[in-house]
Amino acid sequence: MTIKGFPEDFLWGGAVAAHQMEGAWNIGGKGISVADVMSAGAHGVPREITDGVIDGINYPNHEAIDFYHHYKEDIELFAQLGFKCFRTSIAWTRIFPKGDESEPNEEGLQFYDDMFDECIKQGIEPVITLSHFEMPYYLVEKYGGFRNRKCIDFFMNFAEVCFKRYKHKVKYWMTFNEINNQTNFTTDFAPFTNSGIKYEDGENREEIMYQAAHYELVASAKAVKLGHEINPEFKIGCMLAMCPIYPYSCKPEDMMMATSAMHKRLYFGDVHVHGEYPGYIKTYWQRKNFNIDVTKEDEEALKEGCVDYVGFSYYMSFATQYTEGNEHYDYDEETMLVRNPYIEASKWGWQIDPVGFRYSLNWLYDHYRLPLFVVENGYGEIDQVVDGTVDDTYRIDYMRDHIKEMQLAMSEDGVDVLGYTSWGPIDIVSAGTGEMKKRYGFIYVDKDDEGNGSLERSKKKSFDWFKRVIETNGKEL
Ligand code: P53
């Protein structure tokens, strides 16, 4: 398929997170992160969060794909793909193993220096997320995670050290990955991975979520301000999980329900971009009698640290429906989503919706008027190795359909997009389930859910396809 191309400097690449691929969980002075205490789950089987690391449990992130020892080989493969950029995170626990130290761990800092040098040598620009579901577990145990205001300062120490150390190697930064996942506060997964929150029985989960998210939004804004002081050339963005929520029908109450659901999922973006809470969140807190600690200084900090761009992930769309009696259109993500009859879903129930991607790009650009950066998109599937290779035509189809819609959003709708990094260009541990078998890569990694395998890397069919997409700057899909 031939389509109109992309701007010359469009940032094609791939994206991962440290905890999902580095492994070496206790090497080089690294401390235990929240990802290190999560067992493996499956679709419909939540990952268990254990009290510290317990012998005999399979923790898939401990070894992951051992990128820590394979990074040269892997970056060489990314260079073959033609990547212009590589998005990863800096594991907070490599730099501050417990999180509240005053001095960073030099060995951890050196690892990222070496890894970034390798990228730059191969002509690949590192794009960095500071906090991607991997905060120090010690901060959870000692301080209760981001329910504690002190975590703002701990995060700031971490951000400052990273900004100063890598100021000549990294230009594009993001603060908190998918900060809005925690909208789903009734499950244990999102509050723990986003904010290091473990709930006690009987606590008001939603109120605690809003409080933790507020401290993160303040920490993010302060980091944006500080980053610009350290290097005015920095571009620092937020990172939202964009799952647009459609009304199930054109019934007016369904439309209001969808509007309310979008408010709950995306107010985070408004705070990051506009530096203040939208009215609907303040009135919601009042109606619910939530007492959120927001100080005058916080409000000033939010105003002074607006982001430069909006990074976001896009995998799927949602739909919701009004139910009798829900007069305030209150939204619970666990129980109020409905299946969209017009689209298919993956084996993990993720609804495949390329047009929804174009809609998302429009929605975000209409609301925020900032450059957008698509920092995650891709298709998780069970791959079969036949004669030493994987025919992942389904993955090529998914990505082609999505990239085409992105191109239309740019050429027909005038949306400003900086780049596109595919999720998991090399197979990694799934964040949601901890499985290896939910694969996204162009590069296959020989490892199964039980942890067996040689860790050998090999190219799938999609490898040459994506390489060609980048080579032709998106003209040939
Ligand atoms: P996995 C939920 C909804 C949308 C994106 O996810 C999500 C999640 C959490 O699972 O996570 C992002 O591995 C996240 C990545 C993650 C990727 O999407 O569950 O930023 O860390 O791996 C894909 O298939």
TrEMBL record:
GO terms for molecular function: 6-phospho-beta-glucosidase activity. Coiled coil: none annotated. The keyword Amino-acid biosynthesis does not apply. PROSITE patterns: GLYCOSYL_HYDROL_F1_2. The keyword Oxidoreductase does not apply. InterPro entries: GH (IPR017853), GH_1_N_CS (IPR033132), Glyco_hydro_1 (IPR001360). Its EC number is 3.2.1.86. Gene3D superfamilies: Glycosidases (3.20.20.80). Belongs to the glycosyl hydrolase 1 family. PANTHER family: ARYL-PHOSPHO-BETA-D-GLUCOSIDASE BGLA, GLYCOSYL HYDROLASE. This is 6-phospho-beta-glucosidase. It comes from Breznakia pachnodae. The lineage of its organism: Bacteria, Bacillati, Bacillota, Erysipelotrichia, Erysipelotrichales.
